[in-house]
């Protein structure tokens, strides 16, 4: 299922947060949003998981306007891991992951064996099966992040929207989470701060600056010293990763402001 944003503009507090954004995530592709703090990455994602209605433009999910879908239908198509994904009450990890199944059940539908197996598998995939009986609130930041990713996977969506999915994760878990996101065969739109991880994990990147797309294409096309200098204000060298060949950046000092 593909995702398309056509000329999306978001205005808030008399300011344009994103302007005329055009973006496409082909079915099954992993597309990254990169850009400096405040460039509009989360705002863009919030429009896709319908936490924010654009002032203009449309967000299409499998060709349908996301705001025209019922909540249940959109939750069957799309799962999101957001910056404000949190759990208020003292649920166990297994219960938190089970919440991912709710779009597939009636309002008070019981968990089936299939639901339980899907949730157990999702926890195994993020390396968190051993945490199933723990209270979610007692987990470390990285453990919580992995459990929330498991909840999104348990939702069995076609599209996954991820806002900084590697936040809090140590390097091994960062690589594992991005590898499993790639292997899941889903359509993925992810905001990522780490440009080297983005280059390794994404088929295509969109670079945002001040709410506009300033570059898009494959990581090789986009992550050039010129773009990095212009958008991030940092001088960088690009080298090919010795085994994967993905472009990797080595940074010099920030350029003068
Ligand atoms: N409801 C709002 N009202 C006013 N300004 C807002 C609102 N939401 C976001 N902004 C502003 O819009 C800009 C873009 O924010 P956004 O969170 O999309 O950036 P981002 O690229 O995700 O940043 P970061 O990398 O810091 O997470 C910021 O300047 C932010 O302060």
From TrEMBL:
TM spans (from-to): none
CDD domains the UniProt entry points to: ABC_Iron-Siderophores_B12_Hemin (cd03214)
Single GO MF annotation: ATP binding
Show the InterPro entries listed in the entry.
AAA+_ATPase, ABC_transporter-like_ATP-bd, ABC_transporter-like_CS, P-loop_NTPase
Gene3D superfamilies linked? P-loop containing nucleotide triphosphate hydrolases
Which SUPFAM superfamilies does the annotation name? P-loop containing nucleoside triphosphate hydrolases
* Domain of life, source organism: Bacteria
Keywords recorded for this protein, A-Z: ATP-binding, Nucleotide-binding, Transport
Pinpoint the ABC transporter domain residues. 3-235
* PANTHER family xrefs: ABC TRANSPORTER ATP-BINDING PROTEIN, HEMIN IMPORT ATP-BINDING PROTEIN HMUV
What is the protein name stated in its UniProt record? Iron complex transport system ATP-binding protein
């Amino acid at each position: 299922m593909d995702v398309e944003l056509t000329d999306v503009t978001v205005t808030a507090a008399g300011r344009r947060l994103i302007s005329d954004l055009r973006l496409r995530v082909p079915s099954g592709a992993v597309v990254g949003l990169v850009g400096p703090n405040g460039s509009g990455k989360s705002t863009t994602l919030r429009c896709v998981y319908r936490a924010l209605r654009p002032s203009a433009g449309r967000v299409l999910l499998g060709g349908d306007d996301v705001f025209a879908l019922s909540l249940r239908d959109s939750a069957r198509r799309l799962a999101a891991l957001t910056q404000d994904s949190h759990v208020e009450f003292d649920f166990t990890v297994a219960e938190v992951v089970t919440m991912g199944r709710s779009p597939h059940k009636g309002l008070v539908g019981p968990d089936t064996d299939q639901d339980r197996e899907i949730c157990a598998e999702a926890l195994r995939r993020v390396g968190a099966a051993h945490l199933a009986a723990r209270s979610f609130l007692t987990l470390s930041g990285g453990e919580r992040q992995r459990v929330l990713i498991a909840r999104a996977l348990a939702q069995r969506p076609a599209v996954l929207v991820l806002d900084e999915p590697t936040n809090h994760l140590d390097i091994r878990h960062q690589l594992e989470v991005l590898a499993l996101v790639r292997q899941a065969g889903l359509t993925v739109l992810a905001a990522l701060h780490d440009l080297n991880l983005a280059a390794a994990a994404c088929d295509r990147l969109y670079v945002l600056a001040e709410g506009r797309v300033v570059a898009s294409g494959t990581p090789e096309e986009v992550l050039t010293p010129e773009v990095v200098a212009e958008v991030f204000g940092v001088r960088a060298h690009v080298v090919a990763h010795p085994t994967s060949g993905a472009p990797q950046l080595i940074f010099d000092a920030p350029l003068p402001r």
